[in-house]
DNA sequence: GTCTATAAGTCGATAGAC
DNA sequence: GTCTATCGACTTATAGAC
């Protein structure tokens, strides 16, 4: 709505995003936001009225950012292999800039407060989420050319595709607690992941459907 | 520690597990647990002393249940294909009985309260988590027989394997809010998923590593 | 063991001086 | 616009009667 005029307002908002990302709505405290922003707690209410309103603003921004990260990564690149590669590289590079985003979205949606419901209902009405039509088309083409198995379930495949890319970000806290050495090379792991996901998925759908 | 003697004690614990699963530590309220268990709020403190202690007990149980779901699903079945199939079927069937479990673990670990740290440190000391050695061995064997590409990164593959099975449970709230019709057939989707994951992953690692 | 009533603490929100 | 002080709602926890 209103422009973010003051620099202090932007400062608060930027810190609040971080705190909500890390802790979620219930875990986030106005006091911590104020402390980390270097301002008084009263300032938060002066600029943003209430915790609910501050959260609503941030949830909407972050949720759209997440959905757009996925939707915008679907781009036709000529053939299935290139389109797959582009999606995988793009989504991983986008999410690595806000690695807490997937878990934040999953957590807040699973709790499902009123702000969450309203935001999604509003977004469903105006800004219809893009379906991954590009990948669906490429799959159909590849099937007809005989490039991939014609019995492939496209919904399951997209689930596997998106999941394989997002899963590391969702599972990071779990993996970190058990195998901390894996996360020390987090950036390397993500780079290698791009290649690994492409190879398994692309050659996976090229293989013949011999076995049940 | 102590035996769960009273039936009322078991009743409270069973309800508390559900509430913590749904809402996490910060979202769960003692009042709601008492109401849903049909007892007085004071009873909760009589039996479990404090919210922290009740949560600690439940977190430890649920975290172990989750880790064991994964570890126990790794079983040698003679060859790679059968071992993969068994893992996929087993982990999905176990998790479908407590579908909120993966998201609960991810959420609580990402927040990382003192109870969480203590529990994991204790488990790391005594009950060393099983590594998926069985799958690693099968992969090595299959490589030497030339059944699968020798350049396959086993860590990335296990990431993809476990992730592809767990991801639907983590992403369910997100998918449900955007494509509710997909979740209406949740059970069917999970059954189809077993087959889809096996085919993509097994034929994926059998494919030749021609392209970068 | 079970309940009511209430203490004690936390957190969001605001009043009011500057 | 900014700060201090404080209010009031909510939540955990306990005291004490039965």
Describe the structure in your own words:
The structure is a homodimer of 212-residue chains. The first copy, chain A, starts with 6 loop residues before the first helix and ends in a 6-residue tail after the last helix. Chain A folds into two domains: 1-49, Orthogonal Bundle (Arc Repressor Mutant, subunit A), CATH 1.10.10.60; 62-204, Orthogonal Bundle (Tetracycline Repressor, domain 2). Chain A has helices at 7-27, 30-37, 41-48, 51-71, 80-96, 101-111, 114-126, 133-144, 154-178, 180-184, 186-206. Chain A is built from eleven helices and no strands. The model of chain A is unreliable at 208-212 (pLDDT under 50). With 212 residues, chain A is mainly α. The first copy, chain A, is elongated and about 65 Å long. The interface between A and B is large, with 59 and 59 residues. Chain A binds a DNA duplex (18 and 18 nucleotides) through residues 6, 8, 29-31, 39-46, 49-51.
Which stretches of chain A are low in confidence, meaning pLDDT under 50 for 5 or more residues running? 208-212
In the CATH hierarchy, what is the architecture of the largest domain in chain A at level 2?
A: Orthogonal Bundle
Number of domains of chain A: 2
How much beta of chain A, percentage-wise?
Answer: under 5%
Q: Treating each run of at least 4 consecutive H or I residues as one helix, how many helices of chain A?
A: 11
Helix content of chain A: over 70%
Report, as a whole number of angstroms, the end-to-end distance of chain A. Answer: 55 Å
Structural class computed from helices and strand pairing of chain A: mainly alpha
Round the Cα radius of gyration of chain A to an integer and report it: 20 Å
